[in-house]
Amino acid sequence: MSEETGLEIAQARSVYRRLLLSIYVPTLLSSVSLQALLVLLPLYVLERGAGAAFAALLIGLRGLGMLLFDLPVGVLLARLGDKPVLLVGVVAMTVSTALFALSDNLWLMGGAAIVSGMGFTAWMIGRQSYITDNCEIGERGRAMAAMAGIMRVGGFIGPAVGAVVAEAFGFGPAFIILSAGSGAALFFVMSFSRNVPPEVQPGNAHLANIKEIVTANARVLSTGGAASVGLQLMRSARILLIPLFGHFLGLNITAIGMIISLAAVLDAAMFVPAGVIMDRFGRKWASVPCLVFFAASLALLPWAQGYYSLLAVTLLAGFANGLGTGALLTLGSDLAPAKGRKEFLGIWRFVGDIGHAGGPLIIGALINLATLGTAAIVTAGIGMFSAAVMYWFVDETLRPHK
User: Fold this and answer.
1) Do residue 92 and residue 219 come from a single domain?
2) How far apart are CA 126 and CA 140, in angstroms?
3) What pTM does this model have?
4) What pLDDT, in 10s, does the model give residues 118-136?
5) pLDDT digits (tens, 9 = 90+) for 221-252
6) In terms of domains, do 134 and 274 share one?
7) Residue 205's closest CA among 196, 215, 213, 217?
8) Which domain holds residue 91?
């Protein structure tokens, strides 16, 4: 082992230890709870007789809550600091999960879905800001990738745990138990996170501040933001297109689920190499290949002929997504200006969430206007365009550090 490699390993361990109890443990707890909720909620709604349309509406309302709160979270971070926003986010997720168990009122459930989305946005941007404040630029890639990787681990633990609990005790108790999981995350944040002093700003001209930040960072937001939208769009497309193509190929639900699970394992396993690549070689060394391989996987979907070919394409998508673990979080942190950094993180998240929220709508429109294959090809084209923008127009943000 070379001296340089030994030093990198020591630095990585230092970062992971520093963030273990304040960020990583509560991230795992909240991710297991959240991913279980997202799987159980539609089934719960159907059991209550509200119908599939309302189940889809609840998921859409959660996305709306995320979009509505992206910019306000940036303002709150600047005014209050990281820790209060982290606490608000976890409390909102905890309370909203419990509300689903306590009432059959559809209006209350819709409100709980919006609060859940708002809480997740506060929790997500708050963690990004916390890592930015507590890690040097040469550590952020590994720190962000580890957090995103842990979220992916929660993504395949949560649904299994939620299903077992709901099968054994019913939906209501399951939601209460999931809420308790988020409450445990709240304990860790309250006990172990540092309270970074806020950026105190005089006056209440929040909209003027945001407008000023957007104007001053127009090039960064239009180039890096375009790449962010493209990646989030492909992530949304993957979730929707792979099951549809599996159904089109005549595969049963078990086969499709196995394909997606295997890709999820590969996806989650990539967070360590993704972080090392970003911190050793540069952010674009991870993000550009991520976008290219992701676009290639979507472009290959129409050529899948059966189980194994669809598995190969889905594994390529999982590898690509894993290669981009934490890439958008790290890039946003690096690009954020010293003045108004926390508001910038809210704006950056808002731009990315446009792609995340708009992805299913775009895919649905393309399927209605043309075919499933056309939707995959067009989305792949958008992904390749995003890769070109990232390569040619987004500056490498990793700088030599001591």
Assistant:
1) no
2) 15
3) 0.81
4) 999 999 999 999 998 888 8
5) 888 888 888 998 898 788 778 888 888 898 88
6) no
7) 213
8) 1-192
